[in-house]
Design goal:
By secondary structure, this protein is an alpha+beta fold. It is built from 3 helices and 6 strands, in the order ββββαααββ. It has one domain. The radius of gyration is 15 Å and the shape is globular. It starts with 5 loop residues before the first strand and ends in a 6-residue tail after the last strand.
Length: 126
């Protein structure tokens, strides 16, 4: 996985983002999305924990699982820029409610559930 920062422009604000493996995940099936506000790279603005079953790591389990169960058990969709923008917008709404500051830089932790919804705190499944 490339470790470069990617730039994204959301609601007239520039952000940088990167995806890294969660080395502490028991099965290696969780990733972190880290997002920085442009010009504030000292620490991430938000860190988002989400599940992703890399087909190269889980190939055996994926091909032996019946199709209906495969779709409900495995998270096979990689994180795309459109989803990153949606996560950033959801985090801005959440932080605006919690701190009255949607751009508060505090490395706030979130996780994305299986339905794609953003929640406060890290995932308890890892």
């Amino acid at each position: 996985m490339k470790n470069k920062l990617r730039k994204i422009h959301v609601d007239d604000i520039d952000f940088f983002w990167r995806v890294v493996w969660d080395d502490d995940a028991a099965n290696g099936d969780f990733l972190f999305l880290r997002v920085w506000i442009a010009g504030h790279k000292a620490k991430p603005w938000i860190t988002v924990h989400y599940q992703y079953h890399n087909p190269w790591f889980f190939y055996g389990e994926i091909i032996t699982t019946p199709e209906p169960m495969r779709q409900t058990h495995f998270q096979l969709n990689a994180l795309m820029p459109k989803q990153v923008a949606e996560i950033i917008r959801a985090a801005m709404k959440w932080l605006d409610k919690e701190y009255s500051d949607s751009l508060k830089i505090d490395d706030t932790r979130f996780h994305v559930d299986r339905e794609g919804q953003l929640h406060r705190g890290l995932s308890k499944q890892a």
